[in-house]
Design goal:
- This protein is α/β, with parallel strands linked by helices.
- The protein has 3 domains: 6-86, Winged helix-like DNA-binding domain superfamily/Winged helix DNA-binding domain (Arc Repressor Mutant, subunit A), CATH 1.10.10.10; 91-155 and 263-288, D-Maltodextrin-Binding Protein, domain 2, CATH 3.40.190; 159-261, D-Maltodextrin-Binding Protein, domain 2 (3-Layer(aba) Sandwich).
- Helix content is 42%, strand content 19%.
- It contains 10 helices and 10 strands.
- The strands form 3 sheets. The chain has a 6-stranded mixed beta sheet.
- Residues 4-61 form the HTH lysR-type domain.
- One of its GO terms (molecular function) is sequence-specific DNA binding.
Length: 296
């Protein structure tokens, strides 16, 4: 059988991965109409529909869902082989994911991975939680999201938060001996944890008080940095705060911990076998979950 048109295949991969013709068009820098025409061209070549189109949504057909991981794997192998041939060296490992996770969890541990794989080039791209993984990423790290076609997910860390602040903040702030004392303190939060302070306080069983209006940040890592700088009290995630607690840069005034949605996952291509660089990173990062955080 003849090979399908390569450009149509590339457009199908983007549309299937993003589940949207318009988002695929934006990524590929073409019009939605051009995406639609390329999909129709590929469907005509295959003799069967790849998408079900509705008035307000579109989704892959059963055939499209089967074809997408095959296409992704073929394009990624073509990209990897081309890169290796052009560079004369090993393929680059492209890590894409949450800026918060990468800055506070991955980067302190990454020297250990580099020591094991000194000849493996690494490229890191940070993203916001709502961003879609790009086509050229090898591994993606982010919070809970709907399953993406062609990707396999491994849970890394649940979302468990506790109050943290800097010792310097406590030295200059009002007393903080019991949860109800939070009424006299500056609380830090992000849109993602907008209700977490109230939920955490309810868990303590303390008498009802009116908590102050929090200082809001658009990103979790900035809110965390503000806590380190002494601006107020933040809800810090277990798995990210231990090094700062051990070094005395943060203190945890209360032991009560709140578990909520938002676990971090590692997402990798659903291929067998995996390229060696991706398998090596997957095995390494999963092993790190049981290891203590390195000191900073």
């Amino acid at each position: 059988m003849r090979l399908p048109p390569l450009n149509a295949v590339r457009v199908f991969e983007a549309a299937g991965r993003l589940n949207s013709f318009s988002r695929a068009a934006a990524e590929l820098h073409v019009t939605p109409g051009a995406v639609s025409r390329q999909i129709a061209k590929l469907e005509a070549f295959l003799g069967l529909p790849l998408f079900q189109r509705g008035a307000s949504e579109m989704r892959l057909t059963e055939a499209g869902a089967r074809y997408l991981p095959v296409v992704r794997d073929a394009l990624e192998r073509l990209r990897d082989g081309t890169q290796a041939l052009a560079s004369g060296g090993p393929e680059t490992l492209h890590i894409w994911g949450s800026r918060f996770f990468i800055r506070l969890w991955l980067l302190p541990r990454l020297p250990g991975f580099q020591a094991l794989h000194p000849d493996l080039p690494v490229r890191i791209t940070t993203a916001l939680p709502e961003d879609e993984p790009p086509a050229d990423m090898d591994v993606a790290i982010g919070p809970d999201r709907p399953a993406l076609a062609g990707l396999r997910s491994h849970k890394l860390l649940d979302r468990v938060v506790v109050p943290v602040c800097s010792p310097d903040y406590l030295r200059h702030a009002a007393p903080l001996a019991q949860p109800q004392d939070l009424a006299n303190h500056a609380l830090l939060q992000t849109p993602r944890d907008a209700d977490d302070w109230q939920r955490w306080y309810a868990l303590t069983g303390a008498p009802p008080v009116r908590l102050p209006r929090p200082i809001a940040f658009t990103s979790t890592d900035v809110a965390y940095s503000a806590a380190l700088d002494g601006l107020g009290i933040a809800l810090g995630r277990l798995g990210f705060i231990e090094a700062d607690l051990q070094a005395g840069r943060l203190v945890q005034p209360f032991a009560v911990a709140l578990r909520s949605a938002g676990a971090f996952h590692l997402m990798i291509r659903d291929a067998d076998p995996l390229p060696p660089r991706i398998a090596a990173f997957r095995d390494w990062i999963l092993a790190q979950l049981d290891s203590p955080a390195p000191s900073r």
